[in-house]
TrEMBL record:
InterPro entries: ATPase_NBD, Heat_shock_70_CS, HSP70_C_sf, HSP70_peptide-bd_sf, Hsp_70_fam
GO MF annotation terms: adenyl-nucleotide exchange factor activity; ATP binding; ATP-dependent protein folding chaperone; oxidoreductase activity
Key words, A-Z: ATP-binding, Chaperone, Endoplasmic reticulum, Nucleotide-binding, Oxidoreductase, Signal
Superkingdom: Eukaryota
Sequence similarity: Belongs to the heat shock protein 70 family.
UniProt-annotated stretches for the region Disordered: 548-611
Descriptive protein name: Hypoxia up-regulated protein 1
Bias (Basic and acidic residues): 567-605
Keyword presence, Nucleotide-binding: yes
Length: 814
């Protein structure tokens, strides 16, 4: 499955065996679901139901919290959030320093926990659509998310009980969806496409290059398409939400100017939520119409709001926002080092690109470039992520399409070392870039620290961020990612100190498919001189002894065999000792032995000696180094906190399931009572029941109806099931009689048909006069047919006399 996770909406897509990528519908049969969750009176509500709750009780419905992932309470992004949504109560997590939402009923939730519940709901939607449990997922992520934000999103996925296959950039997912259906159009010449995505919360421009590359898949070399992200530009706070809030604030001011209420609407959370909801509707209408009327009933104190507004007024109200529309395009061109002339096509994505003024600003910035609108702006990312999920999953086989994302923020390693300048020792700070801006990933890198022989530490930080504005840097958070402390360096080197040459301390880093940086391992590397294996050395020296023996023996003597006593042991030991001491020797290819009958000359013997002596082998040896990594950008939750969060979400889910089971049991009982009451007054059931039986059943049904209305508010699921079971037993005999009466005509017709067929068959075999069947067999069959026919006639005759509340057997006995 995949989840296209946006600020306001999410789309869930699935891939099933034999079924192409498709969008999973929610419980309201909608293709997209609001990213919102509400808690009211002990119940959880998701999607549209949560939004409805938010209009009446805005402080109990949480939404638009994606930007708070990985943020500390004092981050300016949190301040922006509070300004946008003044009805929320935010607190600082005392253990992690992160953000907590305080619910009016006393509960607190972190953004990761809220998002975990949303993703768990998405998992249920996907499982329902697929008809089987789903646990593997690719989740889209804003390209501008830093390491702390990506880790927080990965934790939320884990809290939802999902296995994260990949965090895929939202525009990258769109680009993959675009490329999958056009793979035949690409060749080894790059095709550059700019994807411009203006969603609810942010705007991102991404340049993607498509071309075919040579790839080795499962041992076979083939040419496959590949997309590579060349550059990314973004505006974190430019999106449909900002337009909506700007318009909503205008409506609130206009309402306050009416002066018909005792309090200002800005002090009324419910009234403000109603005006913001209307602002969102009006914003969408003005994209297709030049004027409209905003209308809200009972904003507060029974005062309605009605106000006309034109598209021109809306554009003037948001003029400063529209001036920022072209910003991401300029930034992505600067990031990629490309010009507009190198862009082959521009594709628009995201619902806010439908605003006419946005398209005008884009067209002005892109000059003669046509604005492509061929993609489904709402679902392209979800479907592209679903394709990637199928590719990464072991259960599906899809055509290869390589995806290479770009690192937005450079990452460097900082460490200190001592330097000696004219006898004066000082400490020098050294910075080494690990992953540059726009480095493609996934990618592994090794950094070598060559001058350390004792324990030390280094820092992992963000590199040069001069391309970001001062305001963006303030929103970014900590520029320090982590510190790494190494221990046991000296001990590791001592293990190989004799005859070994240190080659430094190597740290192995990985920027994985999700853009998450990990330090896989640290090791001390030395080079050791290793002698050849003992068997090879003995064999070589034995042959050397044979060669020397041939030099001083007659041609009639048999040379000593390899490993025999004739091999000079002294020479063997000296050679082994020389190799152990690390003396340099030459490596030659060992030749085959010469003619045994002819002794070798001195020159030939010397050549043979040189051939048999091998160079000592230099082997790199790695010794693991213990390291401790401490995160600095955002304190991660402890294992106890994670366990507590998992339990909190599990308890809420169990409570939801228990409530759902109770609701089903109540509805089943209520439906049974109403349907059975209707049946008791139908002609069919009145004929089947005696008057006494009917009165008894109706009385029991009335008791059940009164219990449902007056006594069932606090009843458990079992009580509803027990009531239903008791009523079912009471009406069972009646229902069986009605069912028997319904089925009897069909059964009698089948009996008649069987008898008619049997009589025809009997006539046929009687004509054969005993050729196949004996007289006894024919007589037995005729007797059975006649007896059955008598029973049939009796049943038909008694059919008119049978009253439905009596059984057939009772009727026959009379």
């Amino acid at each position: 499955m995949s989840v296209d996770l946006g600020t306001e909406w999410m789309k869930v897509a699935i891939v099933s065996p034999g079924v192409p990528m498709e969008i999973a519908l929610n419980k309201d049969s909608q293709r997209k679901t609001p990213v919102a969750i509400a808690f009211r009176e002990g119940e959880r509500h998701f999607g549209d139901q949560a939004i409805s709750t938010g209009v009446r009780f805005p402080e109990k419905s949480f939404s638009h919290f994606l930007d708070l992932l990985g943020k500390t309470r004092d981050n300016p992004v949190v301040k922006v959030f509070e300004r946008r949504f003044p009805f929320y109560t935010l607190e600082a997590d005392p253990q992690t320093g992160g953000v907590l939402f305080r619910h009016p009923e006393g509960m607190t939730f972190s953004p990761e926990e809220l998002l975990g519940m949303i993703l768990s709901y998405a998992k249920d939607l996907a499982s329902t659509a697929a008809g089987q449990p789903i646990k593997d997922a690719v989740v889209t992520v804003p390209a501008y998310f830093n390491q702390a934000e990506r880790r927080a999103l990965a934790r939320a996925v884990s809290l939802a009980g999902l296995k994260l296959l990949q965090l895929l950039g939202d525009n990258t997912a769109v680009a993959l969806n675009y490329g999958v259906f056009r793979r035949k159009e690409f060749n080894d010449t790059p095709t550059n496409i700019l994807f411009y995505d203006m969603g609810t919360g942010s705007t991102t421009a991404t340049i993607v290059s498509y071309q075919t590359v040579k790839s080795k898949e499962k041992g076979l070399s083939e040419t496959v398409p590949q997309l590579s992200v060349k550059g990314i530009g973004y505006d974190r706070f430019l999106g449909g939400l900002e337009f909506k809030l700007r318009l909503g604030e205008r409506f609130a001011k206009d309402f306050s100017a009416m002066k018909k209420t005792s309090k200002d609407v800005f002090e009324n959370k419910r009234g403000l939520a109603k005006l913001y909801k209307e602002a969102d509707r009006v914003k969408k209408v003005l994209s297709a119409n030049t004027e409209h009327v905003a209308q809200v009933e009972n904003v507060m104190e029974d005062v309605d709001f009605k106000h006309p507004i034109t598209r021109t007024e809306f554009e003037e109200l948001c003029s400063d926002l529209f001036s920022r529309v072209a910003g991401p395009i300029h930034r992505v061109l600067e990031s990629s080092g490309m010009t507009l002339d190198e862009i082959d096509q521009v594709i628009l994505v995201g619902g806010s690109t439908r605003i006419p003024r946005v398209q005008q600003e884009l067209q002005a910035a892109l000059k003669d470039k046509e604005l492509g609108k061929s993609l489904n702006a709402d679902e392209a990312a979800a479907l592209g992520a679903a394709y990637q999920a199928a590719y990464l999953s072991k259960g599906f086989k899809v055509k290869v399409f390589h995806v290479k994302e770009a690192n937005v923020f450079p990452i460097q390693v900082d460490f200190s070392r001592e330097v000696d300048t004219d006898g004066v020792k000082s400490t020098k700070l050294v910075r080494r870039v690990l992953f540059y801006r726009n480095n493609l990933y996934p990618q592994k890198k090794v950094m070598t620290f060559s001058r350390y022989t004792t324990d030390f530490e280094f820092s992992i930080n963000y590199g040069d961020l001069s391309f970001m504005s001062k305001e963006e840097l303030s929103h970014f958070g900590s520029l320090n990612i982590s510190t790494v402390s190494l221990s046991g360096v000296a001990d590791a080197l001592k293990k190989h100190s004799e005859g070994a040459e240190p080659k430094g301390i190597k740290a192995h880093f990985k920027l994985d498919e999700s853009g998450l940086l990990t330090l896989d391992s640290v090791s001390a590397t030395v080079e050791e001189v290793v002698p050849p294996p003992t068997e090879n050395l003995a064999s070589t020296l034995s042959r050397l002894g044979s060669t020397l023996g041939n030099l001083f023996s007659s041609g009639s003597e048999e040379p000593p065999k390899a490993g025999s006593e004739g091999a000079p042991k002294e020479n063997q030991e000296s050679k082994a000792e020389a190799r152990a001491d690390g003396e340099k020797t030459e490596t030659e290819t060992e030749g085959k032995s010469g003619n045994k009958e002819e002794p070798k000359t001195d020159k030939e013997g010397a050549a043979a000696t040189n051939e048999t002596v091998k160079t000592l082998k230099v082997v790199p040896v790695k010794e693991p180094i213990n390291f401790e990594l401490k995160l600095l950008d955002r304190t991660p939750p402890t294992s106890e906190q994670i366990a507590e969060s998992i339990k909190k979400l599990s308890d809420l889910e169990s409570k939801d399931k228990a409530k759902l089971a109770r609701d089903h049991a109540r509805n089943a009982l209520e439906s049974f009572v109403l349907e059975t009451k209707d049946k008791m007054y139908s002609e069919e059931y009145e004929r089947a029941a005696s008057e006494e039986e009917k009165q008894n059943i109706v009385a029991k049904l009335n008791e059940g109806s009164e219990w449902l209305e007056y006594e069932s508010d606090n009843a458990e699921t079992k009580a509803f099931k027990d009531k239903l079971s008791g009523l079912t037993r009471i009406v069972k005999d009646l229902f069986d009689r009605v069912q028997e009466h319904r089925e009897r005509p069909q059964a009698l017709a089948a009996l008649t048909g069987m008898l008619n067929t049997s009589e025809v068959y009997l006539t046929a075999i009687q004509a054969l006069k005993g050729e196949i069947f004996t007289e006894v067999e024919i007589t037995t069959l005729a007797k059975a047919i006649n007896e059955t026919r008598v029973v049939e006639i009796c049943i038909y005759k008694s059919e008119r006399k049978i009253t439905l509340h009596c059984s057939v057997l009772a009727s026959r006995s009379t």
